[in-house]
């Protein structure tokens, strides 16, 4: 039983799609060892690690009911198309059909910019489901105000790969506050997720799939130099989005240390926390600032970066989701 925040578009939708495609086959490729796995000194798999589940309840946690239901329909179409492609392998197709029959795609409204909204979401989850095995903390936003076109041209001409990996020409507003009088970007990207994870702590601990896992989605733009610990709500930050992603990584590392060692009252050995970065994928985040023509050119630059050998540009969200699904599905001994 998994929760994906911001599931209706972008990387969140890609994570949902990849989970369906992976779990609808007997041996998900994302659960298998990576090339460097033999270098890991993690010992044998833990005795309490269990096989992957054969079914899935996926909770689409979004603000818009309309967009969530549209995403739900699209996911079912994509899964059906994948099962049709597996016709040559009757065993895989049969497994996938059984998976589809038991699949549950639910929508629960979630507004991370509202403390009351997060509590309402968690209350519904706790009352509806016996446990939660995975949470993908994906939803994110930024107080963007446009593009510094001169800066964009300069960076594209001098450091083109950096320009499409860690752009420095995004204009961001400072001082934006939420309805709860908290830093808006901080609350949406960091605190809202933290509050949700803490409130669902007992549901995570109740998971029969142990350990339950929380996947914190980071970014290549999680830059330490953008974060000032004195401004931890990122109210004064000129690059609040980048700072929020860096703070997310600090938070995930601290929580995982606590849960792995049981040294803090927030810790529980039955839940682990991981950071997953998707690389650079197509997003509609800047669409309103660049328009359709520049958006197409932006996509082309991502493909050019990929053709030039960049491993940081999977372009498609379903491919960018592989880091999150691998961290969710692979045995701990492979991570």
UniProtKB/TrEMBL annotation:
Q: Which InterPro entries match?
A: Ergosterol_Biosynth_ERG27, NAD(P)-bd_dom_sf
Q: Where are the transmembrane segments?
A: none
Listed A to Z, the keywords are: Lipid biosynthesis, Lipid metabolism, NADP, Oxidoreductase, Steroid biosynthesis
Q: Which SUPFAM superfamilies match?
A: NAD(P)-binding Rossmann-fold domains (SSF51735)
As given in the record, the signal peptide range reads none
What processes does the entry annotate via GO biological process terms? Answer: steroid biosynthetic process
Q: Which GO terms describe its molecular function?
A: 3-beta-hydroxysteroid 3-dehydrogenase (NADP+) activity
* Superkingdom per UniProt: Eukaryota
Q: Which GO terms describe its cellular component?
A: endoplasmic reticulum membrane; lipid droplet; mitochondrial outer membrane
Hey, which family's this protein in?
A: Belongs to the short-chain dehydrogenases/reductases (SDR) family. ERG27 subfamily.
Protein name as it appears in the record: 3-keto sterol reductase
Whose protein is this, by species?
Hydnum rufescens UP504
